[in-house]
Amino acid sequence: MSTTSSETTAIQREIAIAARPETVWEFLVDPDKAVRWMGRTAEMDARPGGVHRVEVISGNIASGVFVELDPPRRLVYTWGWETGSAAAEVPSGSTTIEIELVPDGDGTTVHFTHRDLPSAESAARHAHGWEHYFERFVAVAEGREPGEDPWLATGGMS
Domain 11-145 belongs to what topology? Predict the structure, then answer.
């Protein structure tokens, strides 16, 4: 995975997943599959303008709308916090997540960008969260069980 510069307000990562793009895609747009790697509940209407809403941990709900869907290649949606400690700094729909799924043999390379974060500190906090969830995302997309998310039990990042 690449690193995040403290001078930017974007997070960029490249992730290798041993699963076809069609499989990986479903874990990004199907709410039942999405909560296997992130969140307590999810509501996803996977069409342009459709809602993307995840209760990540108790009391912290991220939401936005789907902007672009090109299955199973490209997904763009807005992101921010309806509730929780980051809601004032990163309100619902105020940032953008872009995901490109590139076939690589029998697997997929995921190019992930989370942009428009308001500060380097906010980018660092979000990068920490994404790192936690990317490990779980890779596991479920590859057909493994990630186990219980410790952040659901503790109510946050540790």
Answer: Alpha-D-Glucose-1,6-Bisphosphate; Chain A, domain 4 (3.30.530)
pLDDT tens digits for range 117-141 = 999 999 999 999 999 999 999 999 9
Helix axes 120-141, 21-29, angle to 10 degrees: 120
Domain ranges of the chain: 11-145
User: Checking phi first, is residue 118 left (phi over 0); if not, alpha (psi -120 to 50) or beta?
Assistant: alpha
Write the single-letter amino acid at 113. T
Strand order in the sheet with 41-44: 11-17, 107-115, 95-104, 74-79, 60-70, 51-57, 41-44
pTM listed for this prediction: 0.91
